[in-house]
Amino acid sequence: MNIREMLLELGYSNISEYAREYRTRPIYRESDNNSVLRINKSTGRFVDFAKSITGSFEDLVKLTLKLKNIAEAQHWVSHNGGGVESSESARKPLLRAPRVFPKDCLKKLVRTHLYWIKRGVSEQTISQFEGGVVLEGKMKNRYVFPILDGKSRLIGVSGRYIYDNKSSSVPKWKHIGDKHAWKYPLFLNHKIIQENKQVILVESIGDMLALWDAGIKNSIVTFGLEISPAIMGSLLRFDINKIYISFNNDSSQGGAGNTAATKAAKKLINHFDQDQVRVSLPTKNDFGEMNREEIKKWVKNNIYQHQE
């Protein structure tokens, strides 16, 4: 992406173009001035004239997404800009683009979906995600999901261990690739989210599949308890009306998901109005433990009555 495309990805709009710069409204603060923020086209350096704030493009990303440090901003730029020129070195790429894996490796997947079918996910649903079982290598005995980016490139895989997991040394899920760059499964549901203007954030692919099988297809998987800059950028770009944070409801097990959901809501409120963000936890530990009727009841109680 070039500077303008990354600005759009961050959520900026009404971008005016001048000889050497872009001008727009600073969405990281209250303002109705569409030209007070100016960004150099080639380097990305910005100036907010009203507040006398200036810095690199990475500083602007950090400011816009309310990130903790400049390293997170650099990470976001590397995965959204690829070879964009650094503000500090106009001739040198900032960071490497995300690793792209050869799709030939997917030929090793055994296209059997029995594990998920036994867990209540229909074959019609699970077959859409192009996954399968791996019998050898790093993902041995796992059902593996390909992680694709917006250009249908393979940027990672996520695998669920398919046997009884009594040993704590064997993690349920294993990922290969940089999950902080993943926006899954937008390769399938980005149009649904764009039209619906609502999104449900869930921890794992299993949660997403349970919702999908119940007819709820507007979810994004966070692969943990943090909302990554990549997902944040997509939420801003989609101009979402309602965001439901539906991490695991594990209050009986220390409450990590509950606590993280509240923390995520506070982070989102930096970018969205408070009434656009809602913590809506599953009625059981996660959606994978709920049947279709329970999920539909949850949706009726938590989603539909809050639609605009």
Number of contiguous helices? 10
Distance between the termini: 33 Å
What's the overall geometry? globular
Give helix and strand order, one letter per element, not per position.
HEEEEEHHHHEEEEHEHEHEHEH
Mean pLDDT: 87
- The CATH class name of the largest domain reads Alpha Beta
- Strand arrangement in the largest pleated sheet: 1-2-3-4-5
Proportion in β-strands: 15-25%
Oligomer: single chain
Coarse structural class = alpha+beta
CATH topology of the largest domain: Dna Topoisomerase Vi A Subunit, Chain: A, domain 2
Radius of gyration: 21 Å
| Residue windows where pLDDT falls under 50 for at least 5 positions | 83-96
Write the CATH architecture name of the largest domain. 3-Layer(aba) Sandwich
Count of individual beta strands: 13
Helix content: 25-40%
What is the total domain count?
Answer: 3
Describe the sheet with the most strands: 5 strands, antiparallel
